[in-house]
Each structure stands twice: as structure tokens, then as C-alpha cells.
């Protein structure tokens, strides 16, 4: 016991040792204490490094760097102004050209515009959302193959309503003016808008037989159908100079014609395609005058089957007596070619001018084709 106390006193550190120095370990004195072993030869003891630190490596260590990278040679030039702001918004005053990640900040005491400054806008590829509110038919999203631009509206339609606008100058004075029409579907939504293009002299001198061009426009005021009617007669006494109407969609591309056939008792027409082949036939009544009733023109196939009709509808006593602003209805098969549907619309206008267009507020209805 006295031997162990003397050994502890000899090998222990003084009481005033540094707090970071390791605690007493008898193995540092060369003895492992009771049951201990002497330290391994050639290896430093485990634990903290010696008070003097480790010396330089025996092999000299890694050599110093041979030069290294030099200083930068100038760097990138500063920006020359920055990107312009988004369309429709200018950067606020006294603010840098580059917007912050959240966009330009609003001016003091003001609210930012909806979507932030410089918000991107998507291109308009469909009808405007207010089209339904204005009473216009929505445009189909996909246009079928071989369908002229603007005629995609007719792909889902089997009935059209044609309403002529009342012209007050013509109603009170009898002076013939250019006619205007609104074309609607069966739901009452506007599909097209038609305007006559003719000269004042031809309207006054030729009356209902006058030649004219008619522009049929869509919701965007684009001309999708163009009608041309040359000057001709409509009496059976002149079989070589009967009525004819050409239909173009678009302008410059003929899609079909409507030609009057010679007859004595009833009006008859042939509906032809662009190649001149007869596709449908139209046959009217012996008398085109009626009171409180409709006048029907049947649409027939080449075999004689009825597939549609063009109807002059009764529009009211006052409207019928004092104006020539008529109402028409057109029905045809749903799967009919859209080009022939456009020709059928042209046939409606031709029938209107031949039988229901007044001259000086005087009726021209007569039996037969005399």
C-alpha cells in the first residue's frame, strides 16, 4: 500500500495543471498499474497530443503549390440596360430595369394591377368569352379537314334562320337601300352577318333583278362567304338568260352555284358543287303569296326525296305590309357537306330577291313563272 501511494505521488501531475491537460494515467509512467501492460513500442500513447505538439512529417510532406491560378482578367461587363418589362406595363419610376423575382413592386400608396407587373399574357386562339353574352355562337375548337375557314360553324348545324334588318328610310320613302341580314342557328345565336354591296343606280333602275355582291361575315368581321349575282331575267319567256348565283368560300374560291331551271308553273333550281355537278334540287310552290302562312321551297335529292326546305316565314301583318324585311328558315341534313350548306344559304338569298323583294313597296307575288 505504501508503495502504490509513493508511485501515485511521483507520476501524478501537479494540482495546478492546465485544465486541458489529460487526467492521470498510470500507463504513462511505464507501468500499467495492477494488471496493466507497458505501452507499445514505437506508437505514441492514445489520447491528446503531447504538450509540444506534433513535429513536421518525416517525409517532408507535400511540396508547395507550383504557381496556382492567377488573378481574374477583368470579368464580365455590367448589363447594358436590362430586359424590357412585360407587354402593357411599364416599370415604376425610380426602379431598376430588372424586375425582382416577384415582379415590379407597386408605386407607393397604390395597388398593383391584377397578376402583377409584367404578367405574361397568353395568345387568343378561340372566340372571346363575351361572344355568348353578345348572342354569338361559339366557334368549334377544331376545324375539319377540307373545311374552308369560317365554315366550321356549319358543321354542327342543320337549321339556319335568316332575319332581314328593317331599313327605316326604305320603309317611309320607298327608296331602295342595301339589305342587311342576320343569320342565326336554331337556338337564336348569331352565326353570320350578311351585307349587300350594290350601286345606287342599279338598285333604283333594276330593282329586284339588280346584280349585287354580298359579304357574309363572322363574329370577328372576317368575310367567310362571298355571293355574286349577275344581271339576268327570271321569266320563263327568256330561257337563255335565267338567274344564277355564285358562292365563294373564301373569296376567290368557288364552292358551288345555284341556277334557275326553265319552268312554267313552279320555280325550280339546281344546286351544284364547284365541279358543276348537280347535288340537290329546289322546287317552289305555284303561288308564292300567302296570308298568315309560310311559303315553302322543298329541297330534294336527285331521286326526288325531300331532305330539307327553305321557308319564307310569316313575320307579322305590319312588317309584311310596310316593309320587305322578311324572315326565312333553312333546314338541311346534318351530315351535308359544309360547302353545300353555304350554297343553300346563297339559294335562300336568291329566292328572297326573286319573289319577296318589293319595288317601291309594291308586291310582286304572281302565280307561275310568267
Automatic annotation (TrEMBL):
Cofactor(s) essential for the protein: Ca(2+)
SUPFAM superfamilies membership: Tubby C-terminal domain-like
Listed Gly residues bias regions: 55-73
Pfam families, per the entry: Scramblase
GO molecular function, one term: phospholipid scramblase activity
Biased segments, Pro residues type: 74-94
Keywords on record: Calcium, Lipoprotein, Palmitate
Start-end of Polar residues biased regions: 124-139
A cellular component annotation (GO) from this entry: plasma membrane
Annotated stretches, region: Disordered: 40-139
Task of the protein: May mediate accelerated ATP-independent bidirectional transbilayer migration of phospholipids upon binding calcium ions that results in a loss of phospholipid asymmetry in the plasma membrane.
Family per similarity comment: Belongs to the phospholipid scramblase family.
Name the record gives this protein: Phospholipid scramblase
Species this chain originates from: Nezara viridula (Southern green stink bug)
Amino acid at each position: 500500500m505504501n508503495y502504490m501511494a509513493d508511485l501515485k505521488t511521483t507520476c501524478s501531475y501537479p494540482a495546478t495543471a492546465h485544465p486541458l491537460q489529460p487526467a492521470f494515467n498510470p500507463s504513462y509512467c511505464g507501468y500499467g498499474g495492477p494488471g496493466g501492460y507497458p505501452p507499445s513500442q514505437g506508437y505514441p500513447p492514445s489520447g491528446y497530443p503531447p504538450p509540444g505538439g506534433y513535429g513536421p512529417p518525416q517525409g517532408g510532406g507535400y511540396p508547395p503549390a507550383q504557381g496556382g491560378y492567377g488573378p481574374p482578367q477583368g470579368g464580365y461587363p455590367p448589363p447594358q440596360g436590362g430586359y424590357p418589362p412585360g407587354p402593357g406595363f411599364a416599370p415604376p419610376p425610380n426602379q431598376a430595369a430588372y424586375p425582382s423575382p416577384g415582379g415590379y413592386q407597386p408605386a407607393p400608396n397604390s395597388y398593383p394591377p391584377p397578376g402583377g407587373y409584367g404578367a405574361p399574357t397568353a395568345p387568343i386562339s378561340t372566340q372571346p368569352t363575351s361572344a355568348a353574352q353578345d348572342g354569338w355562337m361559339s366557334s368549334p375548337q377544331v376545324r375539319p379537314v377540307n373545311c374552308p375557314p369560317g365554315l366550321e360553324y356549319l358543321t354542327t348545324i342543320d337549321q339556319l334562320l335568316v332575319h332581314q334588318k328593317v331599313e327605316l328610310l326604305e320603309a317611309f320613302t320607298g327608296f331602295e337601300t342595301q339589305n342587311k341580314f342576320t343569320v342565326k342557328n336554331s337556338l337564336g345565336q348569331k352565326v353570320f352577318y350578311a351585307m349587300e354591296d350594290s350601286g345606287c343606280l342599279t338598285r333604283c333602275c333594276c330593282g329586284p333583278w339588280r346584280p349585287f355582291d354580298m359579304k357574309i361575315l363572322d363574329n370577328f368581321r372576317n368575310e367567310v362567304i362571298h355571293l355574286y349575282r349577275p344581271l339576268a331575267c327570271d321569266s320563263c319567256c327568256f330561257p337563255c338568260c335565267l338567274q344564277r348565283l355564285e358562292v365563294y368560300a373564301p373569296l376567290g374560291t368557288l364552292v358551288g352555284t345555284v341556277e334557275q331551271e326553265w319552268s312554267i308553273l313552279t320555280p325550280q333550281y339546281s344546286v351544284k358543287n364547284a365541279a358543276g355537278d348537280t347535288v340537290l334540287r329546289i322546287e317552289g310552290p305555284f303561288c308564292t303569296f300567302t296570308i298568315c302562312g309560310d311559303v315553302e321551297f322543298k329541297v330534294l335529292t336527285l331521286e326526288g326525296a325531300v331532305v330539307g326546305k327553305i321557308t319564307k316565314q310569316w313575320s307579322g301583318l305590319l312588317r309584311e305590309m310596310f316593309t320587305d324585311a322578311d324572315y326565312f328558315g333553312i333546314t338541311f341534313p346534318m351530315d351535308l357537306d359544309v360547302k353545300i350548306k353555304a350554297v343553300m344559304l346563297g339559294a335562300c338569298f336568291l329566292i328572297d330577291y326573286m319573289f319577296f323583294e318589293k319595288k317601291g313597296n309594291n308586291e310582286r307575288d304572281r302565280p307561275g313563272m310568267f
